[in-house]
From TrEMBL:
It comes from Sclerurus mexicanus (tawny-throated leaftosser). It comes from the Eukaryota. GO terms for biological process: DNA recombination; double-strand break repair via nonhomologous end joining; interstrand cross-link repair; telomere maintenance. Pfam families: DRMBL. GO terms for cellular component: nucleus. It is found in: Nucleus. Belongs to the DNA repair metallo-beta-lactamase (DRMBL) family. Residues 138-194 form the DNA repair metallo-beta-lactamase domain. The gene is Dclre1c. Keywords: DNA damage, DNA recombination, DNA repair, Endonuclease, Exonuclease, Hydrolase, Nuclease, Nucleus. This is Protein artemis. PANTHER family: DNA CROSS-LINK REPAIR PROTEIN PSO2/SNM1-RELATED, PROTEIN ARTEMIS. GO terms for molecular function: 5'-3' DNA exonuclease activity; damaged DNA binding; endonuclease activity.
Length: 198
C-alpha cells in the first residue's frame, strides 16, 4: 500500500552536517536520532519539530546512543566540559609559549565545537594534520591551522600515545627555538568519562 511520507532533516549537533530524521505520514510520526548531542532547550528552538505552539506528536523515537547504560549516570553538559577545558588550557598556555596542549581526539569529526571555542576564547589556532575536511566549513577553517608552531594541537599519528609519552607531539614537534615543550594531553571523550566513578 502506498503512502506519502514527509521526511524532515533536523540538526543533530553531533558534528557538522549531522542530522536526525523526522518521518511523518498517515500513521503518525517517527524520529530517528542517529548520533546526536543537543544542549538543554535546543529541541525547543527547532521550529520543524513543532506544530503551532506545541511539539509534534511523535509515536516512536529510535534513539541511537552508546550511553544508555547506568555507568553513564551523569554526563556533564557540553558547556560544563568546554568551561573546564578552557580553564585548564588557559592556565597551562599562559605559563610560557613552550607550554602546549595536545587534544587527543580519537575520531576525525565531532570536535569542531571545541576547536572553534578554544580558538575564539584564547586567540590560538588549533593545529591539525590536514585542512581538507574543513575546506567547505569557513566558520571552522579560520580556527585551525597546519602550522605546528601553535600552543594547541589536535594532530594525529598512528602511535600518538607513544609520541606523547616521549614528550613529543604526534606531529613530531618536541621543541621551539631550542626550548623543550611542556605538553599536557586532554582526551575529550564521553567514553572515558563513563569509565570513571560518578
Amino acid at each position: 500500500q502506498k503512502e506519502d511520507v514527509v521526511v524532515t532533516l533536523l540538526p543533530a549537533g553531533h558534528c557538522p552536517g549531522s542530522v536526525m530524521f523526522l518521518f511523518e505520514g498517515e500513521n503518525g510520526a517517527v524520529l530517528y536520532t542517529g548520533d546526536f548531542r543537543l544542549a538543554k532547550g535546543e529541541a525547543a528552538r527547532m521550529e520543524l519539530l513543532h506544530s503551532g505552539t506545541r511539539v509534534k506528536d511523535i509515536q516512536s523515537v529510535y534513539l541511537d546512543t552508546t550511553f544508555c547504560d547506568p555507568k553513564f549516570y551523569h554526563i556533564p553538559s557540553r558547556e560544563e566540559c568546554l568551561n573546564g577545558i578552557l580553564e585548564l588550557v588557559r592556565s597551562w598556555t599562559s605559563l610560557s609559549r613552550y607550554h602546549v596542549v595536545w587534544l587527543n581526539c580519537k575520531a576525525a569529526y565531532g570536535y569542531e565545537y571545541l576547536f572553534v571555542n578554544l580558538s575564539e576564547e584564547l586567540g590560538i589556532k588549533v593545529h591539525t594534520n590536514k585542512l581538507d575536511m574543513f575546506r567547505n566549513m569557513p566558520e571552522i577553517l579560520c580556527h585551525v591551522t597546519t602550522d605546528r608552531h601553535t600552543q594547541i594541537h589536535a594532530c594525529r599519528h598512528p602511535r600518538d600515545d607513544d609520541c606523547f609519552r616521549g614528550n613529543k607531539l604526534p606531529c613530531g614537534l618536541t621543541c621551539q627555538d631550542g626550548n623543550p615543550l611542556h605538553i599536557i594531553s586532554i582526551k575529550p571523550s564521553t567514553m572515558w568519562f563513563g569509565e570513571r566513578n560518578k
